[in-house]
Write a structure and sequence with these properties.
By secondary structure, this protein is an alpha+beta fold. The chain is 19% helix and 34% strand.
Amino acid sequence: MKKRAAILSIMLLGFLLFNSAPAANAYSKHGPTYVFIDGKEPLFTNDPFIKYGTTLIEFRPVFEMLGLQVGWDSKTKTVTGKKANLTIKMRINDRVAYVNNKKVILSQAPLILNGRTMVPLRFVAEASGKKVYWDGTTRMIIINDGNFTKADFTFNESDISPQLVEDAKTGKLGPFHASQHGKPLAQIVNKYGFPDARHDGTPYSDDIPFVIYGDYLMYYLGTKGPDYTKQPTVRSIHAILPEAVTNQDMIDIFGRDYKFDYGMYTNMIYDLGTYTVYIETEGDRSYNHPYYLSVGEPEWN
């Protein structure tokens, strides 16, 4: 459909601009490389970066999130991570590491950047028994046990049915739920895996960052100001409606007890009791095309 094509075109432009940057830099004006560990996001002083194909990250936030006790010997410049039955040792500018006293050759040596020790991410995660997944399109890294929820992310004309109304009354929208508004994006990605596309928006306009899972659009925001993409949380989830659908089609299943909101965007609003349905549309005529459908209040505060 045209709306989805426009969204993906924006995403593609951002992706192409990102890939025009030097390969050694995993952070660009189009947002950071996200590292999600078991549904949580470590807080870094230095953003992860790629050096000759190896992602380097600050060791302390990752070690601690993986349950490792952190050690640092300033004399030998050795980093240590320990937990039950596991000891990892690495030394600055040395590609030789040790896992339970067994020698391992690293793809890149640890280094110090802006006073922080940076270590190879994949090596540390896999040595800790985790699985590591990297997606260059969305610039995301998932570290977990490898268990993802299988879900159907398609939304077709056949989905515009009385069942859609019944689901909305309980907060459900396809594989998602209104209770996921306000949740960390890390939790969503850890559950469902990588989205199909990502757009980072701009910090001082209504061009809000989003990811796309099939026919579903998910807006997110992080901290305010220049770091608006860091520590992101989900703000709203929308089904992208098929192009042939009209306002009348939505009225036929949701009924005539709605009101129009003429704000920045025109919305048909249905109060279903516990949850509210928002249908963003091109106009208030019965033949106008509705673009998106969302369930529940968005989390913009």
